[in-house]
Amino acid sequence: MMRPSAVLFATALAFSPLAALAESAVTIPPPAAEAPAQSAGLETAVLAGGCFWGIQAVYQHVKGVTNAVSGYAGGAQKDATYDVVSSGRTSHAESVRVTFNPREISYGKILQIYFAVAHDPTQLNRQGPDSGPQYRSEIFPQNEAQQKVAQDYIAQLDKTGVYKRPIVTKTNTMKVPFYAAEGYHQDYATKHPYQPYIVINDAPKVENLKKMFPDMWRDQPVTVAEADKGN
After folding, report:
1. What CATH architecture is 41-229?
2. Is the pTM of this model over 0.85?
3. How far apart are CA 178 and CA 203, in angstroms?
4. Which residues are catalytic?
């Protein structure tokens, strides 16, 4: 249990002017077309949209997701460390590999959550307080079907005018290697819920998921630690 002083501190942060830095959620329609399930087993989606702590935290609360791992995608293996990626001089983006059961949640729903609450897809090479190409908005399709759904969905959303600016999310890098981030980055929001960065930037995303997608919400997050125990 948190001490009263810590709870008051977190509450004050949440309602401070700094909380306005968090990206606002946007109500958007689902994709007009879905990607068919590629197999009878689990599938993966690799998504980048700012600091991976927040993206991971969102998908850990989504029904049908069996694991969400923070990591790096888009660059070389030798550069896949936090210190190097943070320099902004690699091709990597902070990313999350989402493993999901397509019989419980579709790839299209994964993308709807990504565009609606997980990040702001109109910010170029930045997200909230973080700037640099490592914080870019990018979907790394795992197959041609995922790429088509993503590209068609972006075109669909741009036509609706729900965003004030054009979507800048990239979708052209097919199935690049994903490198898991260091252990201390995994389950970060769950382990450090009262850390100021999490309170200001990431907790609002999780709360928006609960409000906007109640049918997909799970109270108990599926953590990397728990998922690893099951493997």
Report:
1. 2-Layer Sandwich (3.30)
2. yes
3. 25
4. 51
